[in-house]
Every structure is written in structure tokens, then in C-alpha cells.
Amino acid sequence: MPYELYYWPSIQGRGEFVRLALEEAGANYVDVARTPKGMAAMMRMMDSAEHPPFAPPFLKDGDLIIGQVAVILLHLGQHHNIAPKSEAGRLWTHQIQLTIADLVTEAHDTHHPLGPNLYYEDQKQEAARRATDFRKDRIPKFLDWFETILARNPSGDRHLVGASVTYADLSLFQVVEGLSYAFPRAMKRALKDAPRVATLHDAVAKRPRIKAYLESDRRIPFNEEGIFRHYPEFDG
Amino acid sequence: MPYELYYWPSIQGRGEFVRLALEEAGANYVDVARTPKGMAAMMRMMDSAEHPPFAPPFLKDGDLIIGQVAVILLHLGQHHNIAPKSEAGRLWTHQIQLTIADLVTEAHDTHHPLGPNLYYEDQKQEAARRATDFRKDRIPKFLDWFETILARNPSGDRHLVGASVTYADLSLFQVVEGLSYAFPRAMKRALKDAPRVATLHDAVAKRPRIKAYLESDRRIPFNEEGIFRHYPEFDG
């Protein structure tokens, strides 16, 4: 039975971290909300499931319905070859994933500093202030952490954990891709100080299954409805 | 060997979710940064560990150093009687915990909408706008979700998962406690529409180990340096 992924059909958003993991795993899955009547099915499930997710994305695996990106990846990592087998390795990979999730939330907050209910247009000025701080201070701080843990990986600096790809590597690729879309000039500068992160990003993009995915129409282009939005006035 | 918890010594903050789990488990632990030279030890560990946490809190369990509250709780749940044993139950508990973490981040953002680097005093006006939205829309939305999953728990509505206490129950207690400190009037109203959440909160406070902890000086009082801050002008 294929996995069923439920997520907003017109953005990469948080669902993209799950899509990348499913693609790298070569897993059989349906991106339900992109099929006819899929959106209705998604809303129904959120209403009536015994374990209703607070928000998309969520994954249906047989009888299990799993929400929260990091939990979905923890689960996929148990069943596919995209996470370490050891307890210590699993916890470390998950810890990195949750730190990536924090960065994603901060990236989202650059265009919604006053909260998710106001339109971007109604909080533009505040967004400009938050984006400046994010670009100047937070992006370098996070990239420096990723660079440090890559450098300290005893199995080599080509992966965040161990000697092969994990879902954390895929997620770091996606964050670098998204931030480079949103803040192209700032990221170009920031990546010069994080060469291992840049190398990892490029290596993930070339993995055969990821490359095929990125070139397919399953990959939704970035746009200004998603998490990573390109507002040229915020870049610097 | 006792667990070593590393967290800022003068606030409940995110560390409190870990402290409550350790207390309920009856685990032997040292709150390192509250001991002499503890802060220096914490900073050293963040600098030099092979797996450096991005930020406190983190837990040292023998050779393991684990950051991110939800990962620490996942680990403690494996080794103490505060999480279900089944895979499905473990994932669901973890999913609830990550949703609580999202609520905690939003609570923090009410006083720091423009980012963590500006002082609250420099973003007071923006904070007032964000707090209004949080109080009117986000608190009820999250409480409604907790109420729903309590009502749908096939083992009864006294716990979020299964028929006994989990770290998710302890964390929900802490969030209700914190929000009631920060927004006493708004929470009093909101809890009327979430009676199961209110009952769970009160039941956790009466658990013998939690009660003893809350009455001890190990429990740091809420204050305006932590996540949950009482600014009377934000309540309504």
C-alpha cells in the first residue's frame, strides 16, 4: 500500500521535507491533495481522525496517521535507509532535524512577524525589520552550526551524521535551496563562510533520485505563498 | 550516574519541560548550571562537544549529549514510565509534544515578534499587536485541539495518550500554567471552553512528585526573562 502524503497542493512548504525523504527512499507514495478530490479528503481527515494532526503535512502509513514533519521523518527513517540504525545516531539526526525546523520557523516569521493571521501586506514594515535581523544574524548563526557539526563528524564532512545520506542532509539541502531563493545575495555571501554546507547542498542535488525529482513536475516551484519567499527588498 | 541537565539557571523556559519529566520519573539528576561553576561547564560543552547543541536545554546521559526538548523527552520516555511502549503510541505522544513546542514558540514570539536579538523594550508596539492575535485566535485554536484529542482518546479523557501519564501531559500542564501566568484573564475564559484541558492541568499539579517539586525551591518562579511573561497590557 503506498504512503499517502497530505499537504497543501500549491507550495513546497513544510511538506517538501517529507517529499524529499520519500523520493530519496524510492518509496511509493501519493501526494493526495494534488489529486482530484484530494483537498476534501485532507480536510475530512483533519476533522475526524482519532489522531487529528494540528496542521498539514501528515502522512498516512496503513492505519497510522502521523503529523509534524520531524515525526514523519523519524518514522520514515526507521523503515528506509535514510537514518542511522544506532540509538545515538537516530537521536542526533532527529536533534539536527528539529534545529532545522527552528530555522524554518524563523524563515517563515520574516514575512509574518505579527503572526499567521495577518496578511503579509499588513505587516510589511515589521517584516522588513525582522528580515534584516534574520539575514544578518540568524542565517550566519545557523549555517555556522551546520558547518561545525559537519567538520566534527568523525565519519567525514560530506554528511551531517555518519557516512551516508540521512533525512537531515536532505532537509539541509532544502533549507539552503529555500534561503537561496528568498535571500540570494545574502546567502551567496553566507555560504562562503560555510563551504561544507554548500558542498553538501550541491551533492544532494546531484543524487540520482533527487535530481530526477527536482526535474519532474512533482517538484512545485518556489512561490510567494510558501515559507521561502523572494521579496527583493529584504535581500541585501 | 545521575543525568545532567544544562539550562539557564534563572528561568523555567524550555528547560522546565525536561525538569518536569525528570521529576515525575523520579530520576536522579543535577541541574548543572544552577551549581557553582555550572554555567562555565555549560558554555564549554556547547563549544566543544562532538555533538554540540544549538541551544540549551540539553541533557547528558552518560556519553550521550541530547539537545532539543522534544528529543530529550523522547529519550526519557524510552527509559522511564512516562511514554507508551507501542510504536504508534510513541509517535503520537511525540507529535503532540512537537505541537506543544509550536505553541511555546508562538508564546515566545508575543514578546519578540521582530526576532530574538532586539530587546522587548524595542519592539513593544509590535508585541502588543502579536499578543492580541495570539490571545484571541491562537490560544483558543490550540486549546481546542488539545480538548479534541482528549475527548477522542479511547482510553479516556484524563490523559492525552493512553490511560496513564506521559511527558505530553506534563508539558500540557506547563503550557497551561505558563499561559495562565502570562494571560490570566484570557486563559480563564479560554479554559471554560476546554474543560478537559483544565482538569488535566489540575490533576498533574496534584501528582505527588509534581506537587513536591512545585513546592520546592527547585521550581524557579515565573519571571519576565522567561518564555511566559506577564505584561498586564497584553491580557484582555
How would you describe the overall organization of this protein?
The structure is a homodimer of 236-residue chains. Chain A has helices spanning 15-25, 38-48, 69-79, 87-109, 124-152, 167-182, 184-192, 195-206, 208-215; strands at 3-6, 29-31, 58-61, 64-67. With 236 residues, chain A is an alpha+beta fold. A four-stranded mixed β-sheet of chain A has the order 2-1-3-4, with helices on both faces. In chain A, helix 3 runs antiparallel to helix 4 (87-109). In chain A, helix 1 links the parallel strand 1 (3-6) and strand 2. Chain A has two domains: 3-79, Glutaredoxin (3-Layer(aba) Sandwich); 87-207 and 214-221, Glutathione S-transferase Yfyf (Class Pi), Chain A, domain 2 (Up-down Bundle), CATH 1.20.1050.
Characteristics:
Glutaredoxin, Glutathione S-transferase Yfyf (Class Pi), Chain A, domain 2, alpha+beta, globular, four-stranded mixed β-sheet, 4 strands, 236 residues, homodimer
Describe how the helices and strands are arranged.
2 copies of one chain form a homodimer.
Chain A lengths: L2 E4 L8 H11 L3 E3 L6 H11 L9 E4 L2 E4 L1 H11 L7 H23 L14 H29 L14 H16 L1 H9 L2 H12 L1 H8 L21
Parallel strand pairs in A: 1-2
Antiparallel strand pairs in A: 1-3, 3-4
